[in-house]
Write a structure and sequence with these properties.
Helix content is 37%, strand content 22%. The chain is α/β, with parallel strands linked by helices. The longest helix has 19 residues. It is globular and about 40 Å long.
């Protein structure tokens, strides 16, 4: 990695992501920016070609022995040198101006975290509806500084990230992180640039059931001290990786 100045560290957690990882890392490597940035892949013990693909693009590959997207991100962040941490999931592609955009937002020290709008890699009617409604809802929350952190694309200053303890080990760890960040500043949501992310989360259990699943988890994450468990069909987090 040399001794070049690193402004931003991009962390990509991965476990058996050979299908998606190459395109994700290409999109990060293709950033049009004058900033120095590093790319770190945090591998959770992949048995496919994930590590081999990562070696083509990453400045560093770290091994995360414990399974879980939250600890994968935190393990990668511990190796990061940048003052700004960007987290991108292995099945997500970012546009060439992404790093410049989120870095510019975080220059305002009143802002604790930022995520950007998204579109799905597949564009069925039901997916388009969820995509549009989600982005509008998140933009509305972000406009008053009460935005959400989307795990598949987000940025936080390193000092702030560790101040709140990083990603917690909870259902919807990204929503839980947003809640902690809101204690120290605003969380904003940008309508542009827009990332492209896989629709596999929605397709796995059916679009409607997946939407209900994540809505259930969001409520349980936001109101964890209230005994709501028995009201919901989905009581536990069921990871897809």
């Amino acid at each position: 990695m040399g001794k070049r100045k690193i402004d931003v560290s991009v962390i990509v957690p991965a476990f058996n992501e050979e299908k998606y990882l190459g395109e994700c890392l290409k999109s990060i490597a293709a950033q049009k920016t004058r900033m120095g940035f590093e790319l770190i892949v945090s591998d959770g013990g992949s048995t496919d070609k994930t590590v081999r693909i990562a070696e083509k693009y990453a400045d560093g590959i770290v091994e995360c022995r414990k399974r879980g997207i939250w600890i994968g991100r935190n393990t990668g962040a511990r190796k990061a040198r940048g003052k700004v941490l960007v987290f991108v999931d292995a099945d997500t592609r970012i546009p060439p101006n992404y790093l410049d955009a989120v870095h510019a937002v975080l220059r305002d020290e009143r802002i604790a975290g930022v995520s950007c709008a998204f579109r799905f890699d597949e564009q069925t009617r039901s997916l388009k509806v969820i995509e549009e409604l989600s982005n509008k809802y998140l933009l509305l929350k972000g406009s008053i500084g009460r935005g959400e952190i989307l795990g598949f694309n987000n940025a936080v200053r390193a000092e702030t990230f560790w101040r709140v303890g990083g990603f917690p080990d909870r259902p919807l760890e990204d929503g839980a992180l947003a809640k902690e960040l809101l204690r120290v500043g605003s969380v904003v949501f940008l309508p542009e640039p827009r990332v492209i992310t896989s629709s596999r989360r929605m397709k796995k259990g059916g679009t409607f059931n997946s939407a209900i699943y994540y809505a259930n988890l969001m409520v349980l994450t936001q109101f964890k001290r209230i005994p709501l468990q028995e009201l919901f069909k989905y009581k536990n987090y069921l990871p897809i990786r």
